[in-house]
Specification:
Helix content is 49%, strand content 0%. It has 86 residues and is mostly helical. The protein is elongated, with a radius of gyration of 24 Å.
Length: 86
């Protein structure tokens, strides 16, 4: 059994907008023909997002480790050059 191929995800560009740079960021986006839309997170919510991603990565690692154990059990490697009595 082969492991699934790694997930190919799209690259995102995070733009940090503060009260100090909001006008400049919006102007730059509009000059690029981009209609600015905000999806906001507070600093606390961003920390929660980071924690959630860490939990997802950990869960995937545990799942991959479990799959490795199943593979070891159901598909044991054949030992080569094993002599009787060793």
């Amino acid at each position: 059994m082969n492991k699934p191929t790694p997930l190919q995800i799209e690259q995102l560009e995070w733009i940090i907008i503060t009260s100090n740079n909001a006008e400049e960021v919006f102007k730059r986006l509009e000059e690029q023909g981009i209609d600015p839309v905000l999806f906001g997170l507070t600093d606390k919510d961003f920390q929660l997002l980071a924690k959630n991603f860490a939990r997802i990565r950990n869960h995937l690692k545990v799942t991959n480790d479990l799959l490795d154990k199943y593979k070891e059990y159901y598909e044991p490697e054949k030992k080569e050059n094993v002599k009787d009595g060793e």
